Amino acid sequence: MIVVDRSTGEITHRQFLDFPGFLKSDDLVVLNDTRVVPARVFSDDGKKELLRLEDLGGNRWRCLVRPGRKMRVGREFTVGGIRAVVEEVLENGDRVVAFDEPINLEKHGHLALPHYMGRDDQPSDRERYQTVFAKEEGAIAAPTAGLHFTPEILSELPHTHLTLHVGIGTFRPVKAENLEDHEMHSERYAISADAAQKISSVANGDSGRIVAVGTTVTRVLEHVVTEHGSVVEGAGETEIFLHPGKDFRCVDALLTNFHLPESTLLMLISAMAGTELVLEAYQKAVEERYRFYSYGDCMLIL
Fold first, then answer.
1. pLDDT in tens, 256-278
2. What is the CATH number of domain 40-108?
3. Taking a C-beta distance cutoff of 8 angstroms, is the pair 257, 146 a contact?
């Protein structure tokens, strides 16, 4: 774990086991309890691939498809012996696909591992690619900063959970020259009354810090405070894009993994710690041979 102190600019190298030692007694750790579902399926002939982005109800999915040129309206195929038909092609290229019966994702689905892993999912990923506190099903990708925690470490920490179902958009790079022109992906979130009360009591206090585990938690909290002025119970969708120049109104510290260049995630941590300090930390991480991305090492920004 690389530790970045924003107040001094100091960058140090520690182990994740040291994480509890950086917390004060009145801090609150906030984690994302989303659970990854095996949302990637293949047609029985092996020629078509679908990634479920949203369950529309009535055995209908909004999904990414491959190859797109063959998946026109009316195209029929089968998944696990169940007939499917392309009902609609959306403006952004997503498809609405209807099935005659529900698809059992536990039987026919695969995890959509990030492309940089360079491999298909394996049986062991069903648990490895989940946090130990994963509960609410709905994510395509794991909130990877949470993968470092064990039940034993969590038991030492004052913590609470919220839910944000990580979508495929989290891997899409920023291509717009003007950051304000980037079209941010939308993701569903939920905050319980109990979590909202715990977070608000610390956020409104004099000394305790809100320590977000992951960019997903950060996005939810900053979205809710921007929309409502404080952290409140509720559910909805967020498209918030935190990049250099944006202020943080709720999150005081962040634990996160190392991210892809040109990603919205890298821009979020640059907004929090400053671009120059983040680039310096990344350079030191490369020199010290830290592991990057989903199954990699982590960074604590204080």
1. 999 888 788 999 999 999 999 99
2. 2.40.10.240
3. no
